[in-house]
Amino acid sequence: MTFDNRPNVTSIPATRTWNAGNNNYDVAKNTGTAKGFIPEIWSDEIIAQYELSIVAANHVKKMSMKGKKGDTMHIPRPARGDASVKVIEESVTLQAPDTDDLPLVVDKHYEYSVHIEDLAETQALSSLRRFYTEDAGYALAKRVDTDLLDLGVGFGDGDPDRDPTLSLSWEHNQSFIADPNGIAPYVGNTGTLAPSITDKSTIIEMVRVLDEQDVPMSGRCMIVHPIVVADLRKIDEFISADYVSGQPTVSGKIGQLYGIDIYVSTNCPVVENLGAAGRNIANFLFHRDAMVLVEQMGIRSQTQYQQEYLATLYTADRLYGCSTYRKNNGIVLTVGR
User: pTM of the entire structure?
Assistant: First the structure.
C-alpha cells in the first residue's frame, strides 16, 4: 500500500509541484513556465502607465511602421487645395496640389533595464513589480514627449535639426514672448528672464497667428510648463476641470481657454538656464498636424536569467521616430520664472 505523505495544508501555491521522489514540494519545476508569462504581464502594466504619462504624444499626428523593414518612412505633405466653380456641361477642375515628401528617419531607440535579484519573490510582491512597470512606463513616456516638444525649434522658418539646448535655436518667426500688446518676437541669449503671462491678450494673439494661417480650429491644444499654470489661473476665462466639473485631471489636462484644451507637462524644454536668476522655458500652442510620430516597435518586454548575477535582467524598449510635419501649425511661447 502506498501512502501520500504530503503535508496537510489547505492551499498550495500554483507554482509549487509535489515531488514524490524528494518527498517535498518542488518550486523550481514551474519557474520556466512562469517566466513565459512575465513579459506579457509586465508589458500590459508598462503600456498602461505609458499611456497615462504621455502628454504631447497624444496630440500629434501618429503613423505606424510596425512590421515594416527599413529605417525611413516617406510621408506625403500636400498643400491645401482650392474649390473651383463648376461650369455647366464642362468637366470638373482637377486639383494640382504642390506636394512635397517628408522623409522621416526612425532612429530613436530607448530602453529601460533593471536587475531583479529573485524572480519568484518579485512575482509574489505585486507592489515591487508595479514600481518597476510604473517607472519604466514613465521613463519611456518622458523620452517620447521630450523628443516631440524639442521639435518646437523647427516651427515656422526654424530648423528642426537645431540643438534644442541652445537658446538661439529657438529664434524663428513662430517663437514669441509675452508683452503688454500680447506677444513679441523671441530673442535668444539675452541673459534676462522672459516675461510672465499677465493678460489674456497673450493667448488671444497666439490664437490669431494660427487663425491667419488657416490652421484648423479643431485639433488644437496648448502644452505649458507648471510655472505657467498659476499665471493662466489668474485669467477669468480659464476653466479648470478640477474646480468646475469636479473630475480629476486626465493625462495632464488642467482646463480649457477659448475652446483650446490646456495640458501641463514638466517636459517643456528649458530654452535658457540663467542660474540663480531662473529659467526661460518653452510652452506650445499647436495643431496635431504640426508634428508626426512614427512607431516601428511598440513597448517590448524581455527577460533573461543571468546565472553569474543570480538575477533576472528585465528590459523594456521601444523604437520610433518623430519630426515636424506642418511647421506653421505650431507656436512657441517662452516664459521665464
Answer: 0.73
